[in-house]
Design goal:
- This protein is an all-alpha fold.
- It has a single domain, classed as Orthogonal Bundle (Non-ribosomal Peptide Synthetase Peptidyl Carrier Protein, Chain A), CATH 1.10.1200.10.
- Helix content is 46%, strand content 0%.
- Helix 1 packs across helix 2.
- The chain is globular.
- The N and C termini lie far apart (36 Å).
Length: 105
């Protein structure tokens, strides 16, 4: 299994997160997830296309609790918002995060 270095991940051009449409939000969230999982040494993912809206953070993407904290911290920083803790616990798949952010930005 080959994992791309952080600097070789195909990325969407940087855009103000408040001007992103739903597809751009999903793309950015997937990039953040991949970056965080690669940096934590996760061996389950290889490419960005492995991350689907219905992907479970734990079951499909192999994230542990620390990975999830780091993923959502990066998302909060990128989108300049704070996701309430009770909602974080309910976000189990990628589309949960996309839906929340799409309704806030």
């Amino acid at each position: 299994m080959i994992i791309k270095p952080m600097d070789s991940i195909d990325r969407a051009p940087e855009k103000d997160p408040h001007d992103m449409n739903r597809a751009e939000i999903q793309q950015k969230i997937c990039e953040i997830i991949l970056e965080q999982l690669i940096s934590s040494g996760n061996q389950k993912l290889v490419i960005l296309d492995d991350i689907k809206p219905e992907s479970s953070f734990i079951d499909d993407l192999g994230a542990d609790s620390l990975d999830i904290v780091e993923i959502f911290t990066a998302i909060e920083e990128m989108f300049e918002l704070i996701i309430p803790a009770d909602l974080l616990e309910q976000m189990t798949v990628v589309k949960d995060a996309v839906n929340y952010l799409a309704s806030r930005v």
